[in-house]
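Predict the 3D structure for this chain.
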Amino acid sequence: MSGPLRRLTSGRLRRLMSGPLRRPPTAGLPRPCLRRRAAQRGLSAVEALAALAILGLLLNIVAPLALRQVRRARAAAIVAEFGVIRQAAQDVAAATGRWPEDGVTGSAPAALDAPLRGRVRWSNAGQGYAYNWELWADEDGTPVHPEAGLTVGLSVVTADPRLAEALDAVYDGRLVRTAADRYTFAIEELR
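Done. Predicted structure below.
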């Protein structure tokens, strides 16, 4: 052996490691070796910035895709709930001969409250939308809002235009924009 390693004979190494205070294995190693170990402990500023830039790029790609999928899933849930509400309303109309009365945003009309209790949440403020039952016909059947082209519908009230786009993409039937923040599923159209 030659150089700095020569100083670490087996006897000296044993003495270093067996004393009351154990010294780190770097004790006795030459200074250049210690510097290399210290440099390998962490990232340099340039490496950290490069890693952050890559993470930022990935988030810019993944986040919009994830949000789009969340909106599509929410729209699919709304369409499924619309099917449940439509069926309950048709059952009420068949039993009573009348559609349920016009409702208030975020709450079920009285005629639909019992059949839908626990099955549909009319107010989903945490998710950015609420339902409103629409009956746009007088007692004699005259349309109140003929410009909408329908007499019975279920409105989804939302300020999120992207949710409305997702609804339009998911739903196969007729969806009418009846106000700035209302998108109405047609149940009964004008004849």
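The first helix runs from residue 10 to 18.
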